């Protein structure tokens, strides 16, 4: 049930974060990847919010996701734009490609879906799948934004008589494992009657920057660099999103 992104979750994600909706990340990744001629991998590609704009810039994007429901939406968005999508159903821990990539990007904090052991295995696979000199770029939410989340309810109208709702519990904080766990209840309503409900357990891990730097180095990466809030500057006090860059 953890981080499954079922059919209602994928639908809500698509409404809340449509293709091209940017937090500054699309522009940032566009700048960082400008001039890349080789293939670029995006794990946890989701609905294609970032994948598709980068494809439209002419970059050679490849993606995978553990949620088939999210991939269905990503493929449909690519088809409607007449874009050739190279997408597959795989997981962080055991994905495989015969080719090696010029870059691997993990935007929007998706790396935090992994626990420590999964993250270590995944970083080794990232290293293995990069060309010599290839870059890894991944986003991390600031720890306080995860720990201090209060939960709440949101809704999205999807027609004159239909509504999608998301109710999130305040997260349980496991300080020893550096993880938060929240229950997410997705509901589909038609004319005021509940027709479908999904319950998912949403777990995220926060990272110390020195901790992650050491794990990257242990996994074979070098030249670790940090960016704050999708700028060219290192993260400072009050920074909400940190991007970590490392090279094979």
From TrEMBL:
Pfam families: Methyltransf_25 (PF13649). One of its GO terms (biological process) is methylation. InterPro entries: Methyltransf_25 (IPR041698), SAM-dependent_MTases_sf (IPR029063). Keywords: Methyltransferase, Transferase. GO terms for molecular function: methyltransferase activity. This is Class I SAM-dependent methyltransferase. CDD domains: AdoMet_MTases (cd02440). It comes from the Bacteria. Residues 40-134 form the Methyltransferase domain. The lineage of its organism: Bacteria, Pseudomonadati, Pseudomonadota, Gammaproteobacteria, Oceanospirillales.
